[in-house]
Design goal:
The complex is a heterodimer of chains A (about 230) and B (about 475). With about 230 residues, chain A is α+β, with helices and mostly antiparallel strands. Helix content of chain A is about 35%, strand content about 30%. Chain A folds into 2 domains: about 80 residues, ATP-grasp fold, A domain (Dna Ligase, domain 1, 2-Layer Sandwich), CATH 3.30.1490; about 110 residues, 2-Layer Sandwich (D-amino Acid Aminotransferase, Chain A, domain 1). In chain A, the strands form 2 sheets. In chain A, strands 5, 6, 7, 8, 9 and 10 form a 6-stranded antiparallel sheet that branches. A 4-stranded antiparallel sheet of chain A has the order 1-4-2-3, with helices on both faces. In chain A, β5 and β6 form a beta hairpin. Chain A is globular, with a radius of gyration of 18 Å. The two termini of chain A are about 20 Å apart. With about 475 residues, chain B is of the alpha/beta class. Chain B has 3 domains: about 140 residues, Rossmann fold; about 160 residues, Succinyl-CoA synthetase domains (Rossmann fold, 3-Layer(aba) Sandwich); about 180 residues, Succinyl-CoA synthetase domains (Rossmann fold, 3-Layer(aba) Sandwich). Chain B is elongated, with a radius of gyration of 25 Å. The chains are: A alpha+beta (about 230), B alpha/beta (about 475). At the A-B interface, β7 and α6 of A face α8 and α10 of B.
């Protein structure tokens, strides 16, 4: 499946996998993701939502639209099939209005995961050391404070553990002011799974799981982005 | 086509050496640097005006490398840039062990002719299987054999620290400044543009070198990342490796490009590489020497709980802050220790919570017997992994100067403790207002095998990283 997805993206001249494709690839690697399914019609969206369970999130799927919320392409916390149908129509209309030239493949439907502590796991390629994993807290902590840790692939268990402990915001993962702690063992496992995935797939040039929701008993990647290397 | 370890061993432990291009204008620098060489030294110089000066130094001169009789293990090439390829070809023909090329003006200039000549050197070295050190380098320092990078470097005995440097200046300064701090080089290589022999080659060699107990390096960049990581991991599994990386800021990285042409990797990624391999990061010459010193002199430990000793209350406070700031712990002592301390510790103007504010108790200058009791208590205390002691140089140095036996007596206690105890022990001797006297005291302490640091912060940072290494080797988490 992974190989087929990669080949089909390349055949279409794309290096960026859609969120749906990226999540399928990651799921096959044993990484827990919040699955997204493509709906081409409002009716399909409602059927998928019924299957996933409510509440759900709808996001526009278009190779040309990268900042989906800027064009009104994202709706959160949708609680019923009727609302899903209405949201589908609103999203498609908004996307057509804001990006008239974009191809709209449909709308991705995924479960609205319960909130957890937001973390991110990413991979970029260093020109000298090859794939490098990044771990950090999500939201403004990563954007403003650059509170992230790096490790070169492949990681050992000790590397994964130390990487997570290294960030300054680590106490947030231990639970603060009555919030649940994060399942750090699961986060370590996630980092090691990503390391193994990256090692097995040299054709992947960039990867972002952002955000990952960390709970007291598990973690789930809510959004995922995979960029393939050019050519080959 | 990597150079075999046997080849490198021969090259870095030469029995015969030749300097090509020694001249009066630079004071026959290379022949003078090699005046302490224990093997056979010869010169190659074709300029008849230079030959008498060379022979006056007692060195036999030849007009071609090919005329030098017997095997040549090491050649220092200091010839003008355009001639370098031709002489390198002679080295290949002669089958020399290694060539260090002092000459600069190659790819590091970024200019066409320099790049072209460097490519030519590389081709000649590859075709002729020449182990080339440099170009643009100060070559080898083998202390035992008296092959030096500077005439100020010591020789004749073996040191214990291997050094790899992308800068000749830092290679020389590490050896000279290090020696002032009790850190002596075994083998140091200034690697220059490293077009043939590169950091991993030297790292592999030093990892296996019996004299070398600790490896340190100054580097600005890495050519083959995966190979560097492999060699670094292997070396760290055998002995500590301290890495001082130059060009960690954007502006600094720009400077490395014109110095050694190094590519920039983000410093965060580079630090991650070091941590994963178990190497220790250092950020200056002094810092590198400090960490090496802690690794050489302080016994290995994996715990971070400090027992601190200071002579006065004010120092007790700031030594604690300094050690805690770097991530070391200053815990309360055991009940047994407190019970024993309560029986004799002078708490008027002192305290023994940890730190031991002990000036009043040991009679300031140091009653050997009482000091010995304090050492024994900390040594036995299960809450203490390592011990640091402030020497009150500001108050005591003039007394040590007037009465050297008073320092010797104090040092006897310290040395006796260090010999008895398995816990790492570091001392802090602040220069204060009596720098010259303290410099002498520091040397006497180093001669007696004590780890001496000029500030609490430097002692704490150095010891903390030595503990990092020992934890890494023990398979423990490092932060």
């Amino acid at each position: 499946m992974t190989q087929a997805i990669i080949e089909s993206a390349r055949a279409q001249g794309r290096t960026l996998l859609t969120e749906i494709e990226a999540k399928q690839v990651l799921e096959e690697a044993g990484i827990r993701v919040s699955p997204a399914r493509l709906a081409k019609t409002a009716g399909e969206a409602a059927t998928i939502a019924d299957g996933l369970g409510y509440p759900v999130v709808l996001k526009v799927v278009s190779p040309q639209i990268t900042h989906k919320s800027d064009v009104g392409g994202v709706e959160l916390d949708i609680a019923s099939a009727a609302d899903v149908r209405a949201a589908f129509d609103r999203i498609v209309a908004a996307a057509r209005q804001h990006a008239p030239d974009a191809t709209i493949d449909g709308v991705a439907v995924q479960r609205m995961e319960p909130p957890g502590i937001e973390v991110i796991v990413g991979m970029t390629k260093d020109p000298q050391f090859g794939p490098v994993l990044m771990f950090g807290l999500g939201g403004i902590l990563v954007e403003v404070l650059k509170d992230v840790a790096f490790r070169v692939v492949p990681l050992t268990e000790r590397d994964a553990r130390q990487m997570i402990h290294e960030i300054k915001g680590y106490p947030l993962l231990e639970g603060y002011r009555g919030h649940d702690p994060a399942d750090v063992a699961k986060l370590e496992q996630l980092v090691l799974q990503v390391s193994a995935f990256v090692e097995q797939h040299p054709e992947v040039a960039e990867l972002d799981l952002n955000p990952v929701f960390a709970y007291k008993d598990g973690a789930i990647a809510v959004d995922a982005r995979i960029v393939l290397a050019d050519g080959a | 086509m990597p150079i075999s370890s046997d080849r490198l061993r021969r090259a870095l432990n030469p029995r015969t050496a030749v300097v090509v291009g020694s001249k009066k204008a630079d004071g026959y620098m290379w022949l003078r640097n090699y005046s302490t060489f224990t093997g056979q030294l010869s010169s190659v110089q074709i300029d008849p005006n230079e030959i008498p000066g060379i022979e006056a130094l007692g060195v036999k001169n030849y007009t071609s490398l090919l005329d030098v009789p017997g095997e040549v293990d090491y050649v220092m090439l200091a010839v003008p840039r355009p001639v370098a390829p031709r002489v390198l070809a002679d080295c290949a023909k002669k089958g020399v062990g290694a060539v260090a090329l002092f000459t600069s003006g190659f790819a590091e200039t970024g200019e066409g002719e320099g790049i072209r000549l460097q490519d030519e050197l590389l081709r000649i070295a590859r075709d002729g299987d020449v182990a080339l050190i440099g170009p643009n380098c100060m070559g080898l320092y083998n202390r035992r054999l008296g092959i030096r990078q500077s005439a100020e470097q010591g020789s004749g005995d073996a040191g214990d620290v291997g050094f790899i440097s992308q800068s000749g200046t830092h290679a020389i300064n590490f050896s000279l400044v290090g020696e002032q701090h009790g850190v002596r080089v075994s083998t140091s290589v200034s690697i220059g543009n490293a077009i043939v022999l590169d950091v991993p080659d030297y790292l592999d060699y030093l990892a296996d070198d019996a004299d070398t107990k600790v490896i340190a390096m100054y580097i600005e960049g890495v050519r083959d990342g995966p190979r560097f990581v492999r060699s670094l991991r292997r070396a760290c599994s055998q002995k500590p490796v301290v890495v001082w990386k130059g060009g960690v800021t954007a502006a600094g990285a720009r400077a490395t490009a014109s110095h050694t042409g190094a590519l920039a990797t983000s410093s965060a990624v580079f630090r991650a590489v070091l941590r994963q391999a178990g190497a220790l990061a250092a950020d200056s010459l002094e810092d590198t020497i400090d960490v090496v010193k802690a690794l050489l002199y302080a016994k290995p430990a994996t715990g971070r709980r400090m027992g601190l000793m200071a002579m006065t209350g004010g120092q007790s406070v700031v030594i604690t802050d300094a050690f805690v700031t770097v991530g070391l712990d200053v815990p309360r002592l055991s009940g047994a220790s407190y019970a024993e301390l309560a029986s004799f510790f002078n708490i008027i103007g002192g305290s023994y919570q940890n730190p031991l504010d002990m000036g009043g108790t040991i009679g300031f200058g140091g009653s050997a017997q009482t000091l010995g009791k304090l050492f024994a208590i900390l040594d036995a205390d299960p809450n203490v992994d390592a011990i640091a002691m402030e020497m009150a140089a500001g108050f005591l140095a003039r007394r040590w100067q007037a009465d050297p036996a008073s320092l010797d007596g104090l040092l006897d206690s310290l040395v006796a403790h260090q010999q008895r105890s398995a816990k790492p022990f570091v001392t802090i001797l602040q220069p204060q207002h009596v720098e010259e006297i303290v410099a002498q005291a520091r040397r006497r302490m180093q001669e007696r095998g004590l780890a001496v640091f000029p500030s609490f912060e430097r002692a704490a940072r150095a010891l903390n990283r030595a503990i990092d290494y020992h934890r890494f080797r023990a398979g423990m988490d490092v932060p």
